[in-house]
């Protein structure tokens, strides 16, 4: 199988499992992250094949989305072997997706992993980031905002979203983040004013 056919198969693999996802990790999230990762990858001279594969697959084993992370990783590994991808490609992809999620608190070691982590974080800030936060919060039954209870989505901006800008690795992502970060700050200012 040629590389582009392998990528088509990979896209198909996530399409099946993310088609009906409604907490902000839907197929369009994967599309945006992949497009953004490829844009950064071209600027940073990264391995485009690995970067695209990692981007499509980065949420496949997220603990918020699957019951058992280890078996999701195992199923993914079996799938990649069946294509077949080379051992070094499979190892690089699995290693990267094991470190990308913010909740894991890890920094990917490869450039391709760093790029997808950057692209994933860019999708959590700005206008889309705001919409995703309230979608996720709503799906989890959180308060939109609450004066006494910190389990609310506005609090999530202070706990996480406003911090993401300073965790980015590539200069391409850092410059794209500026505008999105400012927009969130303006949003919060307006929100508190209207509240
Ligand atoms: P990661 O995959 O890096 O761990 P998450 O899955 O935590 O990232 O976040 C995915 C999306 O859901 C983001 O847009 C994030 O802002 C939103 N989200 C995650 N946790 C919360 C929360 N407690 N309240 C509101 N939104 C959240
Ligand atoms: Ni993601």
UniProtKB/TrEMBL annotation:
It comes from Oceanobacillus jordanicus. Residues 26-125 form the HD domain. PANTHER family: HD_PDEASE DOMAIN-CONTAINING PROTEIN (PTHR33594:SF1), SUPERFAMILY HYDROLASE, PUTATIVE (AFU_ORTHOLOGUE AFUA_1G03035)-RELATED (PTHR33594). This is HD domain-containing protein. The lineage of its organism: Bacteria, Bacillati, Bacillota, Bacilli, Bacillales. Transmembrane segments: none annotated. SMART domains: HDc (SM00471). InterPro entries: HD/PDEase_dom (IPR003607), HD_domain (IPR006674). Pfam families: HD (PF01966).
């Amino acid at each position: 199988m040629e590389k582009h056919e392998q990528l088509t198969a990979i896209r198909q693999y996530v399409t099946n499992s993310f088609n009906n996802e409604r907490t902000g990790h839907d197929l369009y999230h994967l599309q945006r992250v992949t497009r953004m990762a490829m844009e950064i990858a071209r600027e940073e001279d990264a391995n485009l094949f690995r970067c695209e594969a990692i981007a499509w697959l980065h949420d496949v084993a997220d603990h918020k989305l699957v019951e058992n992370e280890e078996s999701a990783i195992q199923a993914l590994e079996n799938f990649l072997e069946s294509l077949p991808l080379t051992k070094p490609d499979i190892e690089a992809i699995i290693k990267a997706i094991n470190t990308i999620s913010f909740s894991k608190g890890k920094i990917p070691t490869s450039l391709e992993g760093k790029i997808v982590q950057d692209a994933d974080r860019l999708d959590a800030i700005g206008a889309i980031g705001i919409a995703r936060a309230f979608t996720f919060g709503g799906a989890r039954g959180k308060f939109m905002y609450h004066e006494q209870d910190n389990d609310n989505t506005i609090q999530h901006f202070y706990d996480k979203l406003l911090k993401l800008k300073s965790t980015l690795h590539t200069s391409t992502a850092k410059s794209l983040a500026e505008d999105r970060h400012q927009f969130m700050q303006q949003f919060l200012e307006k929100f508190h004013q209207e509240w």
